[in-house]
Amino acid sequence: MDFVTPIEPPPVRGDSAPRESATTTRHAVRLTPWVRLELAAASTRGRRREVNEDAHSALSGSTPLYVVADGVGGGAMAARASRELVHRLHDALDAHRIDARAIRNAVLRADREVGRTIARETDDAGAATMALCAGTGMLLSRWLIAWVGDCRVYRLSAGGEEPAQLLTVDDTYKHLSEAPPPGGSYDDPARMIGNGAVSSPNIDRVALAGGEMLVLCSDGIHKHVGPGEMSEVLRDSAPLARRCARLLALARVRGSRDDATVLVVRREPRHERVALMVAAGLLVTAIAAAIVVTASDRGFRGSHRAPTASYDTGRVVASAESSFSGQTSSRTREP
Fold it and tell me: Has domain 23-269 been given CATH number 3.60.40.10?
């Protein structure tokens, strides 16, 4: 496979170039008839960066699809790679049926297109790592997660003090048992989008119960904040966007100089709607059962009606068999 692996540049010295605003936060709520999703994201430019090379989904999209991307290679091309990656994934998956195959195809297509974009502008290497989650089903209780590189996905339980559960495995040279390029590290990502190194993205399915969270983050956070600290910060009572910002601040205190991004999805069933749906289902089931019992009782009485003067036993047997068959079919259709 012919590809070039970007390597992180050395820290930038001085303040000669314009610099982006250091930190941004976002918050949104997505309502369906049955589920409330609370969404929050925070992203900050690293101290060694002129621009924030991370990117993440807008939280107001029409599809429960959320992406965090981390540009690799330094400078404008890294930032462009991460932003284009987020855009292309949403362009391919928004308003479409999302399954594992659709995600795989979207990631592979993005790998090609991001690579072409960079090649048209420069001979320098540029790519991005990413993590995404996509809700499926009416209740959004089942989620697909996917990742390439060392962006991560965690799950936080609704209560207790359990640390965040890591759901992904980094595509680093160490984990893939591969040798890094000259000047690289075994902890560097060996798979990225935009350099032709992705043959099959990692995809998994996870359940998300009421009150639980999915946490997507770049390595600017998870290399400096452990699962226990992450859990403690995100289970606080402060507004969710503020908790995300505090997670970034904690990463800074722990020594992070890289760009850092976190995106959190918190799922909460709308219990009154779910209760109404269950009650309606039970009512429909009871009505169907009553209809089946009534039909069965009539069939039973009909099958045991005294034969006519002709004593045509063949017809009596046929009538009883037909009644029994109809009863079985009705029960089979019972919800």
Answer: yes
